[in-house]
Write a structure and sequence with these properties.
Layout lengths: L1 H18 L3 H7 L5 H4 E8 L2 E8 L3 E4 L4 E6 L3 E3 L7 E3 L2 E4 L2 E7 H5 L6 E7 L1 E3 L3 E2 L3 E7 L6 H9 L4 H10 L2 H15 L8 H13 L6 H29 L3 H5 L2 H18 L9 H10 L3 H4 L2 H15 L5 H13 L2 H15 L1 H13 L6 H21 L5 H18 L11 H25 L15 H6 L13 H10 L4 E6 L4 H10 L3 H7 L3 E6 L5 H9 L7 E5 L11 E2 L4 H11 L2
Parallel strand pairs: 13-14
Antiparallel strand pairs: 1-2, 2-8, 3-7, 3-10, 4-5, 4-9, 6-7, 9-12, 10-11, 13-15, 15-16
Helix pairs in contact: 1-2, 5-7, 6-15, 7-16, 8-14, 8-17, 8-18, 9-14, 9-15, 9-16, 9-17, 11-18, 15-16, 18-19, 19-20, 24-26
Length: 592
């Protein structure tokens, strides 16, 4: 109806123009107010309410349905505001003269912490025959400052390393320590840490031999493992911060990955019972003599080494808090606070692993034949970790074949084709074996067909719709060879805001973004408003290093943004995997 009225008013102006003597003379007779004179808005905070007045000049009206209130900073929030009754004009409800709105402060400050910006949007027309462009008015207000736990809660959801680095420099040391410990606890719930649980469990089982491990021994083994992991993260973070080195890239060298994948495979074969891995007897004797407690010293070096390797290799991506600490160290040179934050974070990550140690000693049943099965299960997990690591350097089709062999082999090992009658839980065990067999066969067929996704092995036999959406903007080859100059040329050539995704083949979180986040329909809808550029840093060339240095990035994945005026938006950058719904919301906030 609003658009209809606008068209009728326009027709009326044209009609009057020709009827009364010419277009130019008609315009000369009309005098229209500027928007800032036609609509005057004031908004003030009084105790527990925000009082807003919209003053409308005579012979001008504002459409009630067009009037909206929202918070645009520091987050987006649409407000439900009670509107007074207007008057009817040609079938629409409109406001004239002065209209008053009262907004409860609690409606805003219960959801927004700190200072915020209120925005009022509306559309209005003059009775003389002109409709103004949509109008916006913004007002800044001091809000309730976030408390200790509010800050912790917001920062633990933060994906921007620059903001986390700012916190390290602006908050007290105690706040930083608590924050990074909570970061660690949250990271303990991610897939990055999960593979460490079977590694530690297998160490405890292998060191217990034919005896049930004591609580003290199992906990001590876990403690050595966790501290080794924590010290590794700390040292790597300090070195990366002080030297500006991408340590993770160095550890993704194909030869390094092959070496450690071989170590996991060797450990798996040991768990299957083909041989035993242990230090020479003479070494074990010396270690035992050097320790007050021989039981604790046995396998101490191996446990520490596995903790070190787990920290460097198993973690598939650089988490935002790790990147924030590294960025802080690189800017300030304060290795003490940055290193302490990383150590505390790593200990938080290790809390579930310490619980594994306590549980293995307290709740593990007495030794028996079941331990052989447990060792075999951990052996399969070790093989899975080896494939997982090799998947960063091998073609995806070969990786799928390796996964297929693992699942099919596990099914055969579980006796999927054995004909003896099973009862109770054994039937569920046989069902699990059958599922492994079917999934392994699906992966095998998918690999032969050229499929590349473990989650969609039959993608080549279905419609090409999904495959097309995964390739969001570019062919893989066009993502290589970027320099700072080439990227900025493409940014300046864009008439829209720009999203730049930095990834590489050896990054698991990059693949998750590629197959989960970017193809999501909500994300695709928002990406239409952007120019989307993907850059592959797999080769780690000098240009690749220059790009990371230019935008102060450590590792992958990282996503940076530019506005329509080609300005870099460092406070909007994202590090690590982000869920589709969160990414879509982030994109929406940028184009507001």
């Amino acid at each position: 109806m609003v658009n209809m009225i606008k068209k009728l008013l326009l027709v009326s102006v044209i009609f009057n123009t020709f009827l009364f003597g010419g277009f130019g003379s008609s315009l000369a007779q009309q005098s229209f107010l500027k928007p800032e004179d036609a609509f005057k808005v004031s908004s003030v905070k009084k105790e527990d309410r925000i009082e807003t007045d919209l003053v409308i000049t005579e012979n001008i009206h504002v459409y009630k349905d067009s009037l909206t209130f929202s918070i645009i900073s520091p987050t987006s929030l649409k407000l439900e505001v009670k509107k007074p009754q207007g008057k009817m004009l040609d079938g629409d409800e409109v406001y004239e003269n002065t209209v008053h709105f009262s907004i409860p402060v609690s409606q805003i400050e219960s959801k927004v912490k700190g200072d915020y910006t209120l925005e009022l949007r509306f559309e209005g027309c003059s009775d003389k025959g002109i409709c103004y462009q949509p109008q916006t008015r913004s007002f800044m207000f001091e809000g309730k400052q976030p408390g200790f736990f509010d800050k912790i809660s917001s920062l633990t959801k933060e994906g921007n390393t620059a903001k986390i680095a700012d916190v390290l420099g602006s908050e007290s040391s105690w706040f930083v320590i608590v924050l990074f410990f909570i970061f660690g606890l949250l990271l303990a719930l991610t897939p990055c840490v999960f593979p460490m649980i079977p590694i530690l469990s297998s160490i405890i089982v292998s060191q217990s031999g034919d005896e049930k491990p004591s609580v003290a021994k199992a906990f001590f083994t876990s403690f050595v493992y966790v501290v080794s992991m924590a010290l590794t993260y700390t040292v790597v973070g300090i070195v990366a911060g002080l030297l500006g080195a991408d340590i993770q890239t160095a550890m993704q060298n194909p030869w390094v990955l092959i070496l450690f994948a071989g170590m996991f495979a060797a450990l798996a074969l040991s768990l299957f019972g083909y041989y035993e891995i242990g230090l020479p007897a003479s070494w074990q004797s010396k270690i035992s003599k050097a320790s007050d407690d021989a039981a604790k010293s046995k396998g101490l070096l191996g446990t520490a080494v596995m903790g070190l390797l787990s920290a460097l290799i198993v973690g598939p991506c650089v988490a935002p808090p790790l990147g924030g600490a590294v960025l802080f160290i690189s800017h300030t040179g304060d290795a003490w606070l940055g290193g302490l934050a990383l150590f505390v974070m790593s200990m938080g990550m290790g809390m579930p692993l310490l619980l594994v140690g306590l549980g293995a000693g307290k709740f593990m049943p007495r030794p028996g034949g079941w331990m052989t099965r447990v060792s075999q299960v951990f052996g399969v997990v070790m093989l899975a970790l080896a494939i997982f690591m090799l998947g960063r350097i091998l073609p995806q089709s070969i990786t799928m074949l390796l996964w297929a062999v693992l699942f099919i082999g596990s099914a055969l090992y579980m006796g999927v084709f054995e004909s003896k009658e099973d009862e109770g839980a054994k039937k569920l065990f046989k069902l699990l074996a059958m599922l492994f067999l079917l999934y392994g066969a699906s992966l095998f067929i998918g690999a032969l067909s050229g499929a590349t996704s473990l989650f969609h092995p039959f993608e080549k036999f279905t419609t090409g719709e999904r495959t097309a959406t995964v390739k969001v903007s570019q062919d893989t080859n066009t993502r290589l060879g970027y320099s700072v100059e080439r990227l900025m040329e493409e940014v300046r050539a864009s008439s829209k805001p720009v999203v730049v995704d930095f990834g590489k083949d050896s990054c698991t979180a990059c693949a998750e973004l590629e197959h989960i986040t970017f193809p999501d329909p909500k994300v695709q809808e928002q990406l239409k408003k952007f120019t989307f550029i993907q850059i592959d840093l797999t080769k780690n060339t000098e240009d690749d290093k220059a790009l990371l240095e230019k935008f102060e990035l450590f590792g992958t994945p990282n996503i940076i943004f530019f506005d329509k005026e080609h300005n870099f938006l460092p406070q909007k950058s994202l590090t690590g995997f982000i869920k589709p719904e969160d990414f879509a919301k982030h994109l929406e906030e940028i184009v507001r």
